[in-house]
Amino acid sequence: MDTTTDTKTVDTAEELRQVSDLIAAGAVREARRRTARIADSAGGETRALLGRILDALEKHPAVALPQLRYLWKVSDGAGQELIEACVPRPERRAEAVTQADRAVRATRAERREYARRAPGT
Question: Which of 10, 19, 22, 51 is the most core-located residue (most Cβ within 10 A)?
Answer without folding.
Answer: 19
